[in-house]
Amino acid sequence: MAIESLLRVRPRRPVVRIADWPNAVAILALLLPLSFLPLAAAQGGGLIVVPYQHFYIVSAVSILAALIGGAIAVATVQIGLYRVLFLCLGFMSMGAFFAVHGLTTPGILVPNLFKRFMGSAVAISAYLSLAVPALFFAASYAPGLSRLERRLPFWPAGWLVVFVVLGLIAYAAIAILNTSEIARLPLSVPPYSAGLALGSIGLFAFAALRQARTYRIARLPNQGALIAAFVLLASAAACMVLFRVWSYGWWYYHLLMLAAVSLALRALLVERAQGKSFRSVLEAALDLEVSVDIEEIDVEVVAALVAAVEVKDHETQGHNHRVAELSVKLGRQLGMSASELRTLARAGLLHDVGKLGIPDAILHKQGPLSADEWKVMMTHPEIGLTILRRAGRFKRELLAVLYHHERIDGSGYPHGLVGDAIPVEARIVAVADTFDVLTSDRPYRKARSIADAIRVVQAEGGAHLDAKVVEALVAILDGTNLLARTGSRLRTGVEDRQSAAVN
Q: CATH topology for 292-502?
């Protein structure tokens, strides 16, 4: 069917030799440890003590990490997932701690008060610039986090960001203004330094392996770039603890960190230059797109109710799933967060659950419904509300089920709501429902073309359907080129509008 082809179309990606990425990452993972050997052999050589050059390279890493954190922060607000937030906090903390590492370089803002580089604020900041981000990155890939996100609200994330930012500011202030206080911490001397380095390596390796699982499914270049960045950062942590300060190996860890953040930023900018939003880039890189199938499987009540509706109204099998898929696409086009998209997925799946209470004689009638039969049919939103209330775990979904037949001009049912008084979930499901009805076969008529259906929906926009949601539908169709590939004359028919109202 036309609507099914719409839901399966994915945006074209640039032609890239993605088959080379697994090999490149594997080679990188093997060669980086081997590259330590000549550096270890050069340990007995001279030291390169150039504080200002150290400040410059550290500042470059800090700025790039901050840029990545800022880009991810934009996506975090739009997506509303803890996975993205933890990734953002990882790069943010890396930039902050490494900036302190640069500013506390002896001779920059802090005088050289220490005979040894180790045990100073500059060394402690270096270890924390990898250990803290590693913790956040690993948290982003923590097992069970996706399931937990379905149950946790996202609003506490704001307090987490405030807490982290205040902590970073406090650390920077103490490290720069009262360096001796930070220097008392034993984090940069054995065995604590080795523990921090080993912990960082383990956490980066965990994040890389978890990201590799995502990469094996889609094999996108930016997914591979994130794996490589984690490998580079793990190698940097190893170099930091293995080599003497100011030696070749010690300088090497700075270059590894610079390569890691450069690679991550390049992946973001390349995708952004191709017209993709940072949200799209992050969703693809972390495989975050909301799946209707997962929502149906994860919530057993939804699966049971959808199956019951399919059995009851067998002539419209697949309708609920298609409406859910399109509702999610519409919500995403409108910039809704992941939790809101999951609500839309469940609302689309359940919008016709009230038909379980409609007599079969009315539900399966082949011809037009009588006035009395219409009155019975129009009770299915309220029946759906009653059924879902008994399930006890739906909130916003209830609004979409109850109000998806309300109309912008107040001519809908059951309560005749007008305009924005209709919940946004109901307005989105209404457009998806109408479009699917028009583009699906019914016993009394054939499916209409995409072009015809969109013209009908556009004609209803502003009067019966939300104009902004209709615009989002047109944008989705244009993006998949389905609208351009279809072009038949607009046909009008009372049966189309009547069937749209029923379904």
A: Hypothetical protein af1432 (1.10.3210)
